[in-house]
Amino acid sequence: MTExxxxxPANTYHDITRKRYLPHLSYRYFFxxxxxxxALNNGTIGKxxxxxxxxxxxxxxxxxxxxxxxxxxxxxxxxxxxxxLGSAFPNTVAxxxxxxxxxxxxxxxxxxxxxxxxxxxxxxxxxAGAVDELLNNKEKHAAVISSKEAxxxxxxxxxxxxxxxxxxxxxxxxxxxx
Length: 178
Hints:
Layout: E1 2-7, H1 13-21, E2 27-30, H2 33-42, E3 45-54, E4 58-59, H3 63-70, E5 72-80, E6 84-87, E7 98-102, H4 103-107, E8 120-124, H5 127-137, E9 142-146, H6 148-153, E10 157-160, E11 170-177
Parallel strand pairs: 1-2, 1-3, 7-8, 7-9
Antiparallel strand pairs: 3-4, 3-11, 5-11, 6-9, 6-10
């Protein structure tokens, strides 16, 4: 049994939280929260790290309700969320036509992008997963909203840092068990 399940791939904010607070646990990445809860229920993982709330965009899915009904809340972690803009090609914000990211990160940067009406936003399963979508897309005028860690780990160009609308943006994560 793997000790911990969390939303992947590497360098999601879940993964950054794991590295900071739970580096000693063996872990496995999952594509979505349903898969994490299923693995916890069937004993594939012993614990799960699950986002429940963001200070600027509110509750994360129905995670808090699911946890309060069926799971043991073991610990709480809060991670400051600093969103960055990255691209595979040299771009400016004005030259970008498409941005990939998790829907929460898109929501948390609405003010920053409010004067760029020409940009199309594409929702991804996670901010780090959006990096893969960007790299597979190969569009010259595309970008990603993600963590600095994910941008740097994938050798993307860092176009802008701290683009979140709320300066003290943070996400609350629960460590849970069955």
